[in-house]
Amino acid sequence: VPAVQVRGLHVRLGGAVILAGVDLTVAPGEWVTVIGPNGAGKSTLLRAVGGLLPAPGAVSLFGTPSGALRRRERARVVATVAQSPVVPAGMSVFDYVLLGRTPYIAPLGRESAADLAVVHDVLDRLDLTGFHGRELATLSGGERQRVFLARALAQGATLLLLDEPTSALDIGHQQEVLELVDQLRRTHGLTVLATMHDLSVAGEYADRMVLLADGRVVAAGPPDQVLTEELLSRHYRARVRVVPGDH
Ligand code: ADP
Ligand code: MG
Ligand code: MG
User: Fold this and answer.
1) Where is the ABC transporter domain positioned along the sequence (predicted)?
2) CATH of the domain at 207
């Protein structure tokens, strides 16, 4: 059973066709990265997969039609890290990661010792033990990205949706964050569906890539078959440079 199955996904927003019949399959444990120029529909696709946009009948997660999942069930299956997550003013790293437990905590504000233990464990795994009390807004881009991942992990989901997780980072930190995601994928058996605009390191971390342009899949396959000069120069307006030798 695929972790993600998208069949003929059409999305219209504000009267415009944003996705025009997208098909996508992600196997359990696989890492698939969706690339494409600005405005191609990458974020929209991720939002539809994550249930943040209605996609009647087009999306199944681990064999269950997405529309049939209730909120709590969905939270056990899928965790989304948005392109620019809202960072609540004044919130500490610990409290932010604890928000990942929200679907499990009832009533809110009455978290159990088990929930707190999950947060401690996740912060430890992501090398954030010294950061519990730090205000989120004071962290560097790379540290903040680790905290976003920590919150997603605290949720305990098996499918990680990452919308441009490296867009705000320099190349060293890009590699660090992607390395961490890859490590978590292997140790936790996670499935990863990511989007990336910057292609400099994207190919090193994906099992497969999907090139989206104008709301359609124009290429899909192993990174070296998608990151070709021909495809990229045809679909990216600006010139993109791919680090040579890695693909
Ligand atoms: P990408 O992530 O590939 O840059 P997006 O999925 O964010 O692309 O957007 C794809 C297109 O859909 C863009 O042209 C964008 O302006 C448009 N779009 C996104 N959200 C909305 C919305 N809520 N209403 C109208 N148009 C939207
Ligand atoms: Mg964009
Ligand atoms: Mg986007």
Assistant:
1) 4-239
2) 3.40.50.300
